[in-house]
Structures are given as C-alpha cells and as structure tokens.
Write a structure and sequence with these properties.
Strand content: 15-25%
CATH superfamily of one domain: NAD(P)-binding Rossmann-like Domain
CATH architecture of one domain: 3-Layer(aba) Sandwich
Low-confidence stretches: none
CATH topology of one domain: Rossmann fold
CATH class of one domain: Alpha Beta
Bound molecules: NADP nicotinamide-adenine-dinucleotide phosphate
Largest sheet: 6 strands, parallel
Distance between the termini: 19 Å
Length: 238
C-alpha cells in the first residue's frame, strides 16, 4: 500500500513499482511474503482507526482529525470481524486489553474465537443492535448508511467508528452522547514497522483467505465479490 490515497484512479497491480522509502517497512522475518503482503492495507486501516492516526493531514471524511480511544478494559464490538480489516482489528483490540465481541456469519466463529474474540454474534441469526448494550466502542467495517443502528448499543461517552462513509444519524448520536468518527487510511512506513513487530512476534497474525497469481487478478476480484472473505486475498508473483 504505497502512496495511498494519492496514487491515482488508474492504479492497479504490478510486479515492480517505485515507492517513497517512507511508505515502506522491512518484511518481518517470522512470516512469509504472502502473509506480509496481506498486512499493509488492512493492518494500517485497523491501526489508524484503533491505535494511532499518526499524521496531521486534513481528514477528507470529517472536519476534525480522527482520534482513537483507549481500549484497555473496554467493551468493543467489531462488525465484519472476519474480513481483512476486521480480523486485524479483533487482534489489536485484544492486544490492547479490550473485551471483544466479534460479529460475522456463523461459519467464521471458530476462526474468530481462535483470534481471541471473547464473544461471537452470527449476524444471520441475531442482529447485534437488538442484543448488545453498554459498549464503549463499535468498529463497523461495513459502515455506510446503516451504521447508525449501532448507536443504541453504545453507552453515553462511547464511540462509533464506521470504516466506510455514509453515517447519517448525527442528531441521534448527539442525543445519546456518542462520538462518531472515521478516517481514510494513509501509507505509513513507521506504522507498518510497528504492525510488523506484532506480526513477527505472533501477537497478530494475518489469515489468508486465498491466493491467486498476478495474471489471474480477475479471479481474485471474483473471489472478493462472492463475499464471506476470511482474512486477506493475496496476489502472488513469480
Ligand atoms: N476508511 C478507509 O480508509 C478504508 C480502508 C480499508 C478498507 N475500507 C473499506 O472497509 C470495508 C471493509 O474492508 P475489508 O477489506 O475488511 O473487507 P472484506 O475483507 O471483504 O471483509 C468484509 C467482511 O464482512 C463480512 N460481512 C458481510 N456482510 C456482513 C454483515 N451484514 N454484517 C457483518 N459482517 C458482514 C464478511 O464475511 P461474513 O459475511 O462471512 O461475516 C467479510 O468477512 C470495505 O468496504 C473497504 O472498502 C476503508
């Protein structure tokens, strides 16, 4: 994930590319290239939402900077927990000492409990917004216009972080005393190095949903479009 988000609309995949050194970090020795390749986009997104924004560039999604909240001892719900961003967010929240409730489809339960989730909700059986109350934080990787349904799950003083824009319930958030905040991920070599240390030590692991040769990138997109992604889809090069 280099020169993101300024790389340009026509950017795709390539075997070789020029990048500023400040966007790069060394691959952790303890993991292979496929797992390392799965880390940057989702790892930096989870890091910048949950741990540290790490830059002062104006936020394109809201007037004020995004500010992560303390996680130690907090009740945190991750929606879309099995996906790229979600499965790393679960592990970062656990690393920080949070109690983590993971929301995903039923077949993801074992995977998410192995990653450390304390509770699991199968959204095909139970709507989390009907079941859960008194949370400190919701990270909603689905985000968008429906994210406001999580406001009622949060305690006064809590926070809702939608990963996709579209939140439209500002009046209800103000009434409930809930902060709603989002950000757009940016390339960061120094933050990648921090994520890399967690990967090297096994504190965080990248799950690989599937791999495809670069020449078969189309099939990778078809896999993504089928949904229920568990971890990351990675393109490999010779
Ligand atoms: N703000 C930013 O800078 C930024 C950065 C990165 C990504 N994003 C955006 O964040 C979103 C998530 O990215 P990602 O890479 O994590 O996607 P992903 O890997 O495709 O994961 C999405 C996950 O959501 C689950 N899911 C689908 N429907 C659900 C539902 N109704 N409730 C709960 N979970 C559901 C899917 O599996 P199951 O259905 O099996 O549970 C899947 O694991 C994308 O839209 C992406 O564009 C934004």
């Amino acid at each position: 994930m280099i020169r993101f988000p300024s790389f340009g609309q026509s950017a795709a995949y390539a075997q070789f590319v020029a990048a500023p050194a400040s966007d790069l970090a060394l691959k952790p020795r303890g993991i292979d290239h496929v797992h390392a390749a799965g880390a940057p986009m989702s790892g930096l997104t989870a890091w910048q939402f949950l741990i540290e924004q790490g830059h002062n560039v104006p936020n394109p999604l809201q007037p004020e900077p995004h500010r992560p909240v303390p996680l130690k001892g907090k009740r945190v719900l991750i929606n879309g927990a099995a996906g790229g961003v979600g499965h790393i967010a679960v592990q970062l929240a656990k690393w920080q000492g949070a109690y983590v409730i993971a929301v995903a489809s039923g077949e993801q339960e074992t995977f998410l409990r192995e990653l450390g989730a304390d509770e699991f909700i199968d959204y095909t059986q139970i709507l989390p917004e009907d079941q859960i109350r008194d949370l400190d934080l919701v990270l909603d990787t689905m985000g968008g216009a429906t994210t406001g349904r999580f406001l009622r799950t949060l305690k006064r003083g809590g926070a809702l972080f939608p990963v996709l824009p579209g939140f439209a319930d500002a009046a209800e958030a103000a009434e409930r005393g809930v902060t709603v905040s989002m950000t757009q991920v940016r390339s960061s070599g120094p933050q990648l190095a921090e994520v890399g240390r967690l990967l090297d030590g096994g504190t965080v692991r990248i799950a690989i949903d599937s791999t495809f040769p670069l020449a078969d990138a189309r099939r990778a997109h078809e896999r993504a479009a089928r949904g229920h992604v568990r971890g990351k889809i990675v393109l490999t090069v010779e």
